[in-house]
Amino acid sequence: MTALLRAWRRHICGFTSVMALVALVGCDSHAEPTLPPNTDPTTISERVNRADGPEFLRDVTSAAWPDDGQRAAELVVWIPRDAQSTDRTAATRAGQTAHAIASFIADNKGEPPNTPPNPPLWQAFARSLAPYVGAMVGDATGVEGFDSLDGPGSQMRRTAALFAAMTKDNDANQVLIDAASERAHTYEMAFAKAAVAEPILADRGAPQADLLRAAALRSLVATGAQLAEKGPTATPAHAQTELAYQVAVLTARPDDPHINDEFFSGGRLLPPSDIAESDWSIYDTQLTVYLTPWPRINDAIRQFGDAYDVIARGQ
After folding, report:
1. Helix and strand element counts for the chain (H, E)
2. 255 with 248: CB under 8 angstroms?
3. CB neighbours (10 Å) of residue 44?
4. What is the pLDDT of residue 7?
5. Is residue 137 pLDDT above 90, yes or no?
6. For residue 11, pLDDT beyond 80
7. Which end of the chain has fewer CB atoms at under 10 Å, N or C?
């Protein structure tokens, strides 16, 4: 009887220990972490950039916040405000904090599937990262403290992982996509104007730098969606056609023998978005033929496609 009682006690103690462990793990996964009592930018920046900053961010993102993460989101609302501050100290602090957030997200792409969605928090992260899409591809003009997550000309796996992770929330994802697309368009326009002004220099120097940054951003958006299984296989074809259009539209006229009249409206070349899918191949070919007299422009567009592919195929 005594032996039976001891066995029963061991069984109960073991069961209790297991249940306690399960409860502990559950609490650690979704319990609200202690937020800094002082939420000024300096305090938050120091907390996020500490050695245990990633652990803090993991606790914040994995918590089941009653307000869906709104209170936690308020910790970083100052970042987009200070990102382009004329106060270099404030701008650097914002950039370093955004970089810490970006690094955490990029390096924790395999988060548990039951992590709470916390939409306001992820949207705040996206707004904090948006000012730095140029810095992500090596152009830190106008910002401080944010170094690219990957080396120039690399497969940009960490940055692609960041873009993939941001698909967690549709609104957050759209904020980052819009920022990246707008910056890519700015680079493409700068390239197009420079290429038309000096065609012989289109594939080198500043025009080439703008071109490759645009290619990286276009590829990161598409590759991120692909990695998250929320988009098709990333290929450069459409982006290259868009780039060719940006150049051709500056000089092409309706009477040009290389481009069909139907691809003009009001005397202006139609953008790719206005071209029927059935006509896309002809349109693309005619843009290439139109640009043939300027081989270095076509070479530059091919470089764009190659740079896009390095990222898209390198994950």
Report:
1. 14, 2
2. no
3. 21
4. 44
5. yes
6. no
7. N
